[in-house]
Write a structure and sequence with these properties.
The complex is a heterodimer of chains A (about 300) and B (about 500). Chain A has about 300 residues and is an alpha/beta fold. Chain A has a single domain (about 5-295), classed as TIM Barrel. Helices cover about 50% and strands about 10% of the residues of chain A. Chain A is built from 13 helices and eight strands. The longest helix of chain A has 18 residues, at about 220-235. By secondary structure, chain B is α/β, with parallel strands linked by helices. In chain B, strand 15 (about 390), helix 12 and strand 16 form a beta-alpha-beta unit. In chain B, helix 2 (about 95-110) runs antiparallel to helix 4, helix 4 packs parallel to helix 5 and helix 9 (about 285-300) packs across helix 10. The longest helix of chain B is centred in the N-terminal third of the chain and has 23 residues, at about 130-150. Chain B is globular, with a radius of gyration of 23 Å. The termini of chain B are far apart. The chains are: A alpha/beta (about 300), B alpha/beta (about 500). Chains A and B meet through helix 1, helix 2, helix 3, helix 10 and helix 11 of A and helix 9 of B.
Chain lengths: ~300, ~500
Amino acid sequence: MLPRKSHAAHARLLDEVGAVDQVGVEERVAKFTTRSIKRAAKLWGLRMAVSMTDLTTLEGKDTPGKIESLCRKAIRPHEDPAIPHAAAVCVYPSLVRCARAGVGASGVKVASVATAFPSGQTHYRTRLAEVRGAVADGADEVDMVINRGAFLAGEFSRVEDEIAGVVEACGPAALKVILEVSELETFDSIRAASFLAMGVLRPGDFIKTSTGKTTLNATLGNNQVMIEAIRDFYMDTGIAIGMKAAGGIRTAKQALQFLIAVKETLGDAWLTPRRYRFGASSLLNDLLRQAERERTGAYQAPYHFSEAAESY
Amino acid sequence: MPTRKTTAPRRSGLIFGDLWEFDPAPETADPKLKARYDLFIGGSFVRPRSGRYFDSINPANEAKLAEIALAGPPDVDAAYRAAARAFRPWARLPGRERGKYLFRIARLLQDRAREFAVAETMDGGKPIRESRDFDVPMAAAHFFYHAGWADKLGYVAPGRTVEPLGVVGQVIPWNFPLLMLAWKLAPALAMGNCVVLKPAETTSITALKLAEILQDAGLPPGVVNFVTGAGETGAAVMGHPGAAKVAFTGSTEVGKAIMRQLAGTDRKMTMELGGKAANIVFDDAPIDQAVEGIVNGIFFNQGHVCCAGSRLLVHEPVADRVISRLRNRIRVLRVGDPLDKNTDLGAINSGAQLAKIRRLVASGVREGASLFQPPCRLPARGFYYPPTLFTGVTQSHRIAREEIFGPVLSILTFRTVDEAIEKANNTPYGLSAGVWTDKGSRILRMSTELKAGVVWANTFNRFDPSSPFGGYKESGFGREGGRQGLLDYVRLAGGGEP
């Protein structure tokens, strides 16, 4: 057992999980961006990305009407029958019931953020109650935030215990642990936090980059650090943890680069919505637009796609 | 952490299969090749006296690309005479005027970057990703850098005056045809010398395409002359009495022959020869980035790199971790058509080089090292070799001593820092080395104790025109790049040699 709070605990955790060199990570991921994905391979990647999308709305102005239309979009993103449904809709806990009704038996999951998303700054008991409430309302998946304050103060056992508590509160629901990478800042910390979370997760649970509510979200760099941690954890324990890259992925091109990173780091077994997700809202329509481009040879105006925010 | 102590069975069952196969993504720019290339002497293309030509083939599919003129001694002599005629006016030109020509060459090369990248890939077999992102931009960078020096000769050796040497004979290898050409030409021209250069016989095309750029740049005739051919032509260039200096990049064996040939003459020499670099990974290294550095170190340009990190020395506590990650990493390297933008390992430069790689790999197997090659489908035609790892290698294995010049990594282990240094230095070569550790003080110690011209810390195969490059021991002498590289192309007036 690690000491509850000490410099030694920090040093020991970093020592145990190993160091990350930032320049090296950036050099590695730059190679993903030079891959050239064409024709059938592109179409396959685009459809896969659609099926991995957690279609998200996390705004104060969300209403049942908005959730209803989001669910319709997730179930049938496009009239082309070859386009699969999205992985999930991701909403605030108060709208889980509405989303549950909206997705019905379509196979689209209902994900709910919880634990005082996005800051996590409330009492632990309140955070647990929120998780239980979301699951009781019908959430299939819960997206929690870790206690970054405790992590940065070196209280690793507390971070770990809190995640374990949420795992229990989730019951049958899958858990996604948001590290909020922009607040951890260094790749070393992101790797350490990944291991801390994975240590108490169940197979099929996820670790996730960010809330989308801070300045820096998913990048190929922090995605790479996290999927390498998942790979190392899997090679050591045989436990397969999933990954969710959230926030900042707006274009199909970016999404394909993330998938190439998955293909070349974790392999084929992670190229499935059961193990890899995108948390995004505007990404979905760009994926569809690019898929239409591959199918018809022409780009459609944004307003041809439902729920498009951009128009003229 | 509780999970690290788990007793669950160790599995490494990652699947790198064909679930998501990439479609071909060929680069389609026109390389604008001519059917026949003549010699470039005195500013124009001239037929060889002998009238003989040889074929240059594409190692990716063994198809003929062009005919290249075979230069004999009379052609080499003509090139030296043209250079000698051009020397005095060129050397007397103000530095800033010479600089203008170099800037012009650099810009014209940038303008035609895609065309040159495709030509380089077709001629030499390297992946288009590398010729596009490394060879061509880096060649242009060398011209830019040295253009900047041309009008600053007073700062090359502060307190002394520098003078050009005269006509310089240069012979370059086939692994980085255009880049080596730039390394040789740019400093020589910036310092006011004239050049007779022979490219390697398998990769002459981009040099002759650059000759077109030299014409477009209006470079005075004779300042640069290209003679093409094989070893005999090279010997004629190196041995010509008109050369004030010779510069050679290539194998240690040929380098030694040139030095024997020139012993007793007053010819200045620089030699950039073979290597068997140690890439040293300590237990505190960032493992994944080290693995990436190992891959860059040995599989860059199919391992046809004199400073390739061909010996991996890995600290015993992390050896298993490093090797298992390395295996997974090379499973996703894509071997095949060099013109495909997704290719990581292209074609081996020639059938002869492929035979040499096969021979040395067979010796490794025979001597008991264990071989790992990921499954990969190689094209039916052309010269290809899969990425190869040898574990269980010791210092006395041939594959740990001889330069293979192919995508073959020999993995050795060590226990202490001293042992790492001892093993790294236990080679006749000394061109480069790599050190991977989180500890800054260890990097500093290693950089002083490793007998290598370049020591990379937490990276490998990084180059910059401002950074001198060259060897220790049988890896040669003289430096290329940086201020040090300029000193090899000047005579210091009013004093001794530098």
